[in-house]
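User:
Care to share a sequence and structure tokens?

Assistant:
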Amino acid sequence: MLEFARDQFLWLFAFVGVFFLVYFFARRYRRARVTYGFVWERVAKKLRPPAWKRLLRTIITVVVSLTLLGSLVLYASGLGPPREEETPPLVVYLVIDGTPSMRTAATGGARRELAIKRAAEIMRRLGERDRALLIQFRGGVASAGRWLKSTDQPGELAPTDFAQPDFASLRGLLAGPLPPDVPVSPSPQRLAVWLGDAPPPLKEIIAPVRLQRLSPRWFDCGGVPCAFESIGVAAANDGVADVVYRPARADSPATVSAKLVSGKPPAWRIEDDEGAKLAEGASAEIELPRDLPENVRVVVSTAPDALIEDDRVTLNLAQFSVRRVALCYPASETANALLLDSLKLLLPGREITTKPIATGAREVEADLVVLDRVAPESVKAPLLLAFCALPPALGKLGAPTRAAAGLYGTPRSPDDFTVPDPALISAREVVPLASSDALTPLVTHAQVGTLVARGRKDGDVLYIGFSPHESGFLFVPAGPLLLQRWLGVPRGRASLPPLVRYNAATDIKLSRAGKLELELAQGWTDAQGARRVEITSGPDGRLTLGPLEQPGVYRAQIDGAVAGEITALWGDAREQSGEFAPTPPLDLAGLRPEARRQDWRDLFPGVLLWIALFALVLEWLLWLAGITD
């Protein structure tokens, strides 16, 4: 096939046009006086130039023709070394380390950000026929995008991946099909470049001949040579490496032991649920006081350093605690003193806030919200106790009516507490539950309908159809006992461990069979992995939690009811240390091979063209001198 790409000598053909212009200019027509005698004299003599002049002109013409035509044919046909001797194109696989240690701060940004910049710099050094492929890990599995040219951008940086890289998937990508626009002859040279903070655990090999200048150290990745370049410099990091919580026993208090990467004692702080400091210090073993409130947080921390994500670990020790109680009542009345006193007896030491509710009230928020015959449009609370009123989202109520004692069916008890017998409760006014998809009837009156119902929708809801003002619900033992048993259920859910390792399995036993839902509330920004987990326990309430895909603080719910928070701990001494042996940067000039020395196959078409040009000039000079006709 003709190859007209080789044009470094083709500009010389322009001199051929110059020769013909001079020739036609010299042979232009001019006026001359010609007599018949002159004409007959020329015809009679049959003047011809000497034979040697004709021979010289013919030889020069043949030389010009042969060399000019030969140069053109050889050059157009691609005379030169065979394709097998040409420099093969490069197929470069740019592997970005996405482990947590790549988030370590360095000059110019985090290491992971410097790695993607370095990948772009390597791509700009590639040739026109070379191609690149950016490879990053997602869930430990190597994944890649489209083939890239030297003028393209490498693409977006993948989120941090906590899973260990799967080298089998990486080898599969490196041995995959080549890009379709890369010539197959000569065979392309595959090359992997690993950008990270520590070399991959691969077998070392001898450097490829062509790429010896690129790096002195090479690894074998499924038959593809792999070079490594460290990103950034080593930076000291002293994160929280391990935390262990031991609950209180009869003979010993609860303790929290913590260990830093450096072995130094960490700083710790105990806070209540509103962030107020209860105690603080610096030690590897933290003994928790016995008189702490029910809902506290233990924060273990170290000074900020190169990797800020592992500088702080928070343990929420109380899975659920009622600290704030909101009692809502009609704005036209005063708070029911009997109901207020009952709540103080059931929940001693709690902060109880009375909230008069007018028509159109929108939202009330607390740990326990008590509705006394009036309901706002929305309630945000893990526990909702409703007397003769419900938010619209939970159901509809019937008309107020009278109810006599002793007309109840058998109470229906849920799985986690027993409903007492309400036979002695009488009321001058009750409000039955008309319909609800969220509440399950527990106590039903033979004439009126459902008077006690319970459900879980954004919290645990208990509806009481007995009015606190016009019933004996708070006077007889069955009423307060029902409330006491219901309030005891959230405390029974405190079997969830406050701390687990994110990459380990933990056996848990719930107080009853149910579904545990975990949702990541506080985690690493821009990290991979599922943020929501659902686990259904066995009939005895046992389940296995983990491994999880991300560390952080998870909000836990059991069958839709709030059950507290679980901290999934990340601890990896090697990743957290921040120490590694930096390697010299790759010599990117080694990506471009040394120029091949030219031989006669490269020079021969040009030599012929210069001979043709010299012969043309010689013939022109001889003609100007009158030596040739």
About this structure: Confidence is low (pLDDT under 50) at residues 1-9. The first strand starts at residue 90 and ends at 96. The two ends are 41 Å apart (CA to CA). The chain is about 20% helix and 30% strand.
